[in-house]
Design a protein that fits this description.
Shape of chain A: elongated
Oligomer: heterodimer
CATH superfamily of the largest domain in chain B: TolB, C-terminal domain
Largest sheet of chain A: 4 strands, mixed
Distance between the termini of chain B: 22 Å
Helix content of chain B: under 10%
CATH architecture of the largest domain in chain B: 6 Propeller
Helix content of chain A: 40-55%
Strand content of chain A: 5-15%
Largest sheet of chain B: 6 strands, mixed
Distance between the termini of chain A: 22 Å
Number of helices of chain A: 7
CATH class of the largest domain in chain B: Mainly Beta
Radius of gyration of chain B: 23 Å
Structural class of chain B: mainly beta
Radius of gyration of chain A: 23 Å
Number of strands of chain A: 4
C-alpha cells in the first residue's frame, strides 16, 4: 500500500459516488467496509473492486482515511516497532538477535528516503560523564554504520549520544545497567 | 538573592536547627569555638551544608577580632573571615575576646598569652551615600608590629565579598599563596526533572542560577576571566556546546555539529575552546573559536575515542582521555607538533584529566578495585597517588591557587561535592537538601 494507491482508491470511490443514482441510501444497511487503508488500497489494486463497492449501494458513503506515516512503525507486529538495541558491558558490537531489527529499519529507510532517524546511544552511570558520552556515541555509531552498510543514506541518519544522562532504569544494579546499555532509533 | 541558599556546617554541630534558618557554623578543631552567623534574609527550604574534617600540617594561630562598627550590619565581616581562614585548614582561630579597630594597638601581651601569632582588627563605617568604609589591619603578635592593612569602600551587597577579599589578603600575607576565598564555583543541580546550572561563592553563599532546563546540563567550564561559562546542554535532544555570558545571560551555541558536541575546555587566553565532536565518526578533539563561527580544527587523530581535553597553562600542551590503547587512559598532546604520549598507567581506567594552575600536577579519576577515586601525579614523573576514598568520584577541579581539588561524589545515595586539600589533609563536603549536586568547576581568582 502506498499513498498513491490510496489517492487513486479514494478518487475512484468519489467519482463513482458523484455519478451514482439519487437513491436515498439506507445508511444503517450500508456495508461497513473500507475502514482501513489496507482495504482501500486493495480495492484500487483490483480494477473491479471500486465498482463492486458502488454496486453494494454504499456509493455515497465516505469513510475518512488518514494517512499515518508511522503506521508501519507503530504496528506492534512489525519488526519496526522494536527500536532499542542492547549491548553487552563495554561492548559496541550489535548482537545477532538485533540484526533483524536493524535490517527492518534499514529497509524502511531505504524505501522511505524522506524519513530521518536519530540513533541515540546510552550507557550506564559508572565512570566519567564525558567518557560515557563518547561510549554512548560509539554504540550509536555502530548502529549508524550498520544502517549505512544496508544502503541508508548519510542524510537520513544522525548518531548522537546521551551518555549516562538519560537513563531508562535508575537503579544501581546489573539489570538497570543492562537496560541503559542501549541505542534507540528515534524517527523525526 | 538566591533561590537555594547554602548551609554550611560541621557534622558535630548540625542538629536541630529549623530547616528554614540559614546559619553558618564552623568547627574550629582545637578550640572547639563555635561561631554562628545570623541569617541574612528569608530563605527557601532548600539548603546546602558543608562538613569539614582534618587539619593542615601546620596551623597558623590567628585571632580575628570583631570589627568596630557603627550599628548593625547585614554581614558579620569578622565571622566570614574566620570561617574562611578556618575552612582553609591552614589556621587555628584564637579567641580575641574583644573588638579591635584598624588603628588601635592590640593587646599583644594578652594575645601572646593566648597563643596567637597574628591578630586582625578592623572597622566598618556607614557613609552618607549608604556604602561602607571598610578598614582592616593585620599585626604580628610576636614582633608586636603591623603587617599592613587596607581600606576600601563597599556597597552593602558586597560586604560578604569584601570579607572574602580581606581573608584572601591575610592568607596571602601569611602563607605566600593567593587566597581563594573570593572565588566562585559552578556546579549543576538536579531536582526531579529540573536541571540547574548554579554559581556560588566558594563558601556556598550567594547561589545564582544562570540556566535552568528540563534537559541535562554537563561539563561547565569557566572562561579564564570568569565572565563566561561553557557547558554542554541537551536542550535540543542532543549534546551541544554553549558559551554563556553571565552578566547578560546571552548564550551562543558554539559547537552544534552533526552528532555529539561536548567536553569544552578553554584555552588559557580565553579565545578558543577544545571540544569533543563526532562529526567525523567517533569522538575526536577539535579546536573552535570561543565566539563561534569558523571551521573546527581537528587536534587528535585516532580510530577510537578521544575526549575530555584539558589545556596546560602554557596553552601548547593538552591532556585528554583516549581508549586508543584499548582502555581509557590519559594522554598528552603537543598541539604544535601533534606528538602524543601516554601519561597514566596505574589502572585500566584513568579519565578526566585536569592540570594544576602551576602546570606541575595532574589530577584525574582512576578506577581502583572497581572504585572510582581521585588520583594525582607529578607531570614530570612521579607515582600516581590516590587522594579520595569515596568510590563514586567524578569531575575533579583544581582551585586556582592549586591547594584544593573539588570533585563530585555520592554520599548516602545523593550526589554531593567534596573538596580535598592537595596535601590530602583537609576535606570539605558540600551537600544539598534540594537534590543532587554535581559537575563542580572552580572559577578563576577574582580580579
Amino acid at each position: 500500500m502506498n499513498l498513491k494507491q490510496l489517492i487513486v482508491a479514494s478518487g475512484i470511490t468519489l467519482l463513482l459516488a458523484g455519478c451514482g443514482s439519487s437513491v436515498k441510501l439506507d445508511e444503517t444497511s450500508a456495508p461497513i467496509d473500507n475502514r482501513s487503508g489496507t482495504a482501500a488500497a486493495g480495492g484500487a489494486a483490483g480494477a473491479g473492486a471500486g465498482g463492486a463497492t458502488a454496486g453494494t449501494g454504499s456509493a455515497r458513503q465516505v469513510t475518512p482515511v488518514t494517512i499515518d506515516p508511522n503506521a508501519a512503525l507503530n504496528d506492534p507486529s512489525s519488526p519496526l516497532s522494536k527500536r532499542s538495541i542492547y549491548f553487552d558491558f563495554d561492548s559496541f558490537v550489535i548482537k545477532d538477535e538485533y540484526r533483524g531489527t536493524v535490517e527492518a529499519h534499514a529497509k524502511f529507510l531505504t524505501t522511505n528516503k524522506t524519513r530521518k532517524v536519530v540513533v541515540q546511544g546510552n550507557t550506564d552511570d559508572r565512570g566519567s560523564r564525558e567518557y560515557n558520552l563518547a561510549l554512548g556515541q560509539k554504540r550509536a555509531e555502530a548502529v549508524r554504520r550498520s544502517l549505512a552498510a544496508l544502503g541508508v543514506t548519510e542524510q537520513q541518519v544522525e548518531a548522537v549520544s546521551f551518555g549516562e544522562e538519560k537513563p531508562r532504569a535508575t537503579g544501581s544494579d546489573e539489570a538497570s545497567w543492562a537496560e541503559n546499555r542501549r541505542a534507540d532509533l528515534v524517527y523525526q | 538573592m538566591n533561590a537555594e541558599p547554602l548551609d554550611y556546617n560541621s557534622p558535630m554541630l548540625r542538629s536541630d536547627r529549623p530547616a528554614s534558618a540559614l546559619s553558618v557554623l564552623i568547627q574550629a578543631w582545637l578550640l572547639a569555638v563555635v561561631l554562628a552567623l545570623p541569617a541574612l534574609a528569608p530563605r527557601a527550604a532548600a539548603q546546602m551544608r558543608i562538613e569539614v574534617s582534618g587539619v593542615g600540617a601546620t596551623q597558623y594561630p590567628i585571632a580575628v577580632a570583631g570589627f568596630v562598627t557603627s550599628g548593625r550590619l547585614p554581614v558579620d565581616v569578622a565571622d566570614v573571615i574566620r570561617a574562611d581562614l578556618t575552612r582553609s585548614g591552614a589556621f587555628r582561630l584564637i579567641d580575641p575576646l574583644a573588638t579591635l579597630g584598624d588603628s588601635g594597638a592590640p593587646n599583644f601581651i594578652d594575645l601572646r598569652a593566648k597563643g596567637a601569632d597574628a591578630v586582625v582588627g578592623g572597622s566598618i563605617a556607614r557613609l552618607a551615600d549608604g556604602r561602607y568604609d571598610v578598614r582592616f589591619r593585620l599585626s604580628d603578635v610576636v614582633r608586636q608590629s603591623s603587617l599592613g592593612g587596607e581600606s576600601f569602600v563597599a556597597a552593602e551587597g558586597d560586604l560578604r565579598f569584601a570579607a572574602h577579599r580581606i581573608a584572601d589578603w591575610i592568607y596571602e600575607k601569611l602563607t605566600g599563596q593567593p587566597g581563594i576565598f573570593s572565588t566562585r564555583i559552578a556546579f549543576v543541580s538536579k531536582n526531579g526533572p529540573r536541571y540547574r546550572l548554579n554559581i556560588a561563592d566558594w563558601d556556598g553563599e550567594n547561589i545564582q542560577t544562570p540556566l535552568a532546563s528540563p534537559e541535562p546540563i554537563i561539563s561547565p567550564s569557566w572562561s579564564p576571566d570568569g565572565s563566561r561559562l561553557a557547558y554542554v546542554s541537551f536542550e535540543s535532544k542532543k549534546p551541544v556546546v554553549y558559551v554563556h555570558t553571565l552578566a547578560t545571560g546571552q548564550r551562543q551555541a558554539v559547537a552544534n555539529f552533526k552528532g555529539s558536541n561536548s567536553a569544552p575546555a578553554w584555552s588559557p587566553d580565553g579565545r578558543s575552546l577544545a571540544v569533543a565532536l563526532t562529526r567525523d565518526g567517533l569522538s575526536q578533539i577539535y579546536l573552535i573559536s570561543a565566539s563561534g563561527g569558523g571551521q573546527p580544527r581537528r587536534l587528535t587523530q585516532s580510530s577510537g575515542i578521544d575526549t575530555e581535553p584539558a589545556f596546560a597553562p602554557d596553552g601548547k600542551t593538552m591532556y585528554f582521555t583516549s581508549d586508543r590503547g584499548g582502555s581509557p587512559q590519559i594522554y598528552r598532546l603537543n598541539i604544535d607538533s601533534g606528538d602524543v604520549a601516554r601519561v597514566t598507567f596505574g589502572s585500566t581506567y584513568n579519565v578526566s584529566p585536569r592540570v594544576s594552575p602551576d602546570g606541575r600536577q595532574l589530577a584525574f579519576i582512576s578506577r581502583r578495585d572497581g572504585r572510582f577515586v581521585v588520583a594525582m601525579k607529578e607531570i614530570n614523573g612521579g607515582a600516581e597517588q590516590v587522594m579520595s576514598d569515596g568510590g563514586r568520584e567524578e569531575s575533579p577541579s583544581f582551585a586556582p591557587n592549586g591547594r584544593w581539588i573539588m570533585y563530585a561524589t555520592q554520599v548516602g545515595g545523593r550526589d554531593s561535592l567534596m573538596a580535598i586539600s592537595t596535601d590530602g589533609r583537609v576535606k570539605q563536603r558540600l551537600t544539598s537538601s534540594s537534590g543532587d549536586i554535581r559537575e563542580p568547576t572552580w572559577g578563576p581568582l577574582a580580579k
